[in-house]
């Protein structure tokens, strides 16, 4: 029997349709692409990217040369540019502003053939720390209101390069999806005096049926109203609204749960394309009692079609309870 499930944060309804139910092997995921050929992100090709903004590199090596382990460069084809102001304008009842912002690429490893979850935990810790450093640096620009950190893997997920990398975009406005989460959290807090994210996480831990991974600092689970098969969220167990406030000791546990979760997804779905996005509070906000930063991972194994675009409903053919069960069954070393 199909179910309509309501997302407790933003109020979005999702159709869970087990009649269409699929096992992981039923999804037509693309096999990992051949990774040969020329790559502008590989060591030795530093001159083909814009000058680096930041890098972890060997002592004595020069910027924009080999010897780096993680490298941050401006996107060569940015969605937004840093020049100009972000003042709003109007044309009748239409509103617009200059496309001001920053668009950066985090090259996660010099090794062209290694995926993020396969890197050593200490290396993943450094990548997560780079996210914090860049977010704090971009926050110094008064024009920016939000920084989004995301990773696209595979062509179906929007990646144009195979070399493992993430992206960071600073925006002059708060994105609509984040605004919806903020409003949903604010409304729940006003009625109940509690954080809806914390309440959701507490129930997930109590029920256990959608839990994928858990350690002393973080929890990974398939959300109750999952929009997509094998959609997985990672939350800090303690309440924090900003990604940038991660304690130093938590980088290892975050690296661990992220690596293990991605490995489970790769094993069950045979290395699918995916999108990974960090949801955090806006730059100008202090600590918010009604918002909880988190990471959302969405494997690209289904397509959004006319019904979804026309209604705003999502149809998920694999219940999140089943997705979580498949992911938990993976035996990791």
Q: In angstroms, what separates the terminal alpha carbons? A: 37 Å
C-alpha Rg (nearest Å): 20 Å
Name the CATH superfamily classification. Answer: HIT-like
Portion of residues in beta strands equals 15-25%
**What's the number of extended β-strand segments?**
15
Average residue-wise pLDDT: 92
Q: Which structural class matches the secondary elements?
A: alpha+beta
Query: Order of helices and strands, N to C?
Result: EEEEEEEHEEHHEEEHEEHEH
CATH architecture identity: 2-Layer Sandwich
CATH fold assignment: HIT family, subunit A
Explained architecture:
The protein is α+β, with helices and mostly antiparallel strands. It has one domain (7-18, 39-84, 95-329): 2-Layer Sandwich (HIT family, subunit A), CATH 3.30.428. It has helices at residues 121-138, 176-192, 196-207, 250-269, 306-311, 320-329, and strands at 3-6, 13-16, 54-57, 68-74, 88-91, 94-97, 102-107, 146-153, 165-171, 211-214, 218-221, 232-236, 274-279, 294-299, 314-316. A 10-stranded antiparallel beta sheet has the order 3-4-7-9-8-13-14-12-11-10, with helices on both faces. Strands 1-2-15 form a 3-stranded mixed beta sheet. Helix 1 (121-138) packs across helix 4 (250-269). The model has no long low-confidence stretch (mean pLDDT 92).
């Amino acid at each position: 029997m199909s179910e309509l499930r309501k997302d407790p944060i933003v109020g979005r309804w999702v159709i869970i349709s087990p009649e269409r139910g699929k096992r992981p092997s039923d999804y037509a995921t693309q096999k990992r692409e051949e990774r040969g050929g020329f790559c502008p992100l590989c060591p030795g090709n530093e001159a083909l990217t814009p000058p680096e903004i930041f890098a972890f590199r060997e002592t004595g090596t020069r910027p924009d040369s080999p010897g780096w382990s993680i490298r941050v460069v401006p996107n060569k084809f940015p969605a937004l540019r840093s020049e100009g102001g972000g003042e709003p304008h109007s044309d009748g009842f239409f509103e617009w502003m200059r496309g001001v912002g920053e668009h950066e690429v985090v090259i996660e490893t010099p090794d062209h053939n290694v995926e993020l979850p396969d890197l050593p935990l200490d290396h993943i810790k450094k990548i997560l720390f780079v996210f914090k450093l860049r977010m704090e640096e971009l926050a110094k620009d008064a024009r920016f209101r939000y920084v989004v950190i995301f990773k696209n893997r595979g062509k179906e997920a929007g990646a144009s390069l195979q070399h493992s990398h993430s992206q960071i975009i600073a925006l002059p406005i708060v994105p609509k999806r984040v605004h919806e989460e903020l409003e949903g959290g604010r409304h729940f807090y006003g009625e109940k005096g509690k954080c809806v994210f914390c309440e959701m996480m507490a129930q997930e831990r109590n029920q256990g049926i959608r839990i994928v991974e858990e350690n002393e600092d973080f929890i990974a689970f398939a959300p109750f109203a999952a929009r997509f098969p094998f959609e997985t969220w990672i939350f800090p167990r303690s309440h924090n609204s900003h990604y940038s406030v991660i304690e130093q000791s938590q980088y290892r546990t975050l690296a661990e749960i992220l690596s293990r979760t991605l490995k489970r997804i790769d094993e069950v779905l045979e290395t699918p394309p995916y999108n990974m996005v960090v949801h955090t509070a806006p730059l100008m906000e202090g600590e918010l009692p009604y918002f909880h930063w988190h990471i959302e991972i969405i494997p690209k194994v289904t397509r959004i079609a006319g019904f979804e675009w026309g209604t705003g409903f999502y149809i998920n053919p694999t219940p999140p309870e089943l997705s979580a069960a498949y992911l938990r069954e993976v035996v990791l070393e």
